[in-house]
TrEMBL record:
It comes from Anaerocolumna aminovalerica. Keywords: Hydrolase. Pfam families: 4HBT (PF03061). Signal peptide: none annotated. GO terms for biological process: acyl-CoA metabolic process. This is Acyl-CoA hydrolase. PROSITE patterns: HOTDOG_ACOT (PS51770). PANTHER family: ACYL COENZYME A THIOESTER HYDROLASE. Belongs to the acyl coenzyme A hydrolase family. InterPro entries: Cytosol_ACT, HOTDOG_ACOT, HotDog_dom_sf, Thioestr_dom.
Length: 157
């Protein structure tokens, strides 16, 4: 019988304060630094879901909606949206949080992570229990994104 897990079981939140070493020449957060943090959150989400080590297989739809600046508090929230046999799609939303707790979205990304065993071979991941309308919408979107990824691979992209 397949193991099943809920979205909430692997939900992950990470907090960062933007420091001087994170800033580019324009006074904004390096996009690559944010991508690093997103990749870490995605990895934690996928590890929690699969209970295996994981590797990043694809980055989709990385959308920078606004910048972050020195001393901003960033909140990164990751959740499983779709699972295949050995892969998991993880959505990561990044917000700038003001001192009063209000959050402004600055980035959304979808990463595809693959669970691997100790010999680095892909392993089957738990099925995802989809419970809410929002989770169902993400699942349907994940199916479409998976088909687009397959098409891009077939076309050499």
């Amino acid at each position: 019988m397949d193991i099943e897990k809920r979205v909430e079981e692997s939900l992950t939140e990470q907090i960062q304060i933007v420091m001087p070493e994170h800033i580019n020449g324009s006074g904004r957060l390096f996009g690559g630094k944010l991508m690093e943090w997103i990749d870490i959150v995605s990895g934690v989400v996928a590890r929690r879901h699969s209970q295996y080590n994981v590797t990043t297989a694809a980055v989709d739809n990385l959308q920078f909606k606004a910048g972050a600046h020195l001393n901003d508090t960033l909140v990164l929230i990751g959740r499983i949206t779709y699972v295949g046999n050995t892969s998991m799609e993880v959505r990561i939303d990044t917000y700038v949080e003001s001192m009063d707790g209000m959050r402004k979205p600055i980035n959304r990304a979808y990463f595809v992570m693959v669970a691997i065993d100790k010999d680095e071979n892909p392993v089957r991941v738990p099925r995802l229990i989809v419970e809410t309308e929002s989770q169902r919408a993400e699942w349907e979107g994940g199916k479409k994104r998976t088909e687009l990824r397959k098409l891009r691979r077939k076309e050499g992209f």
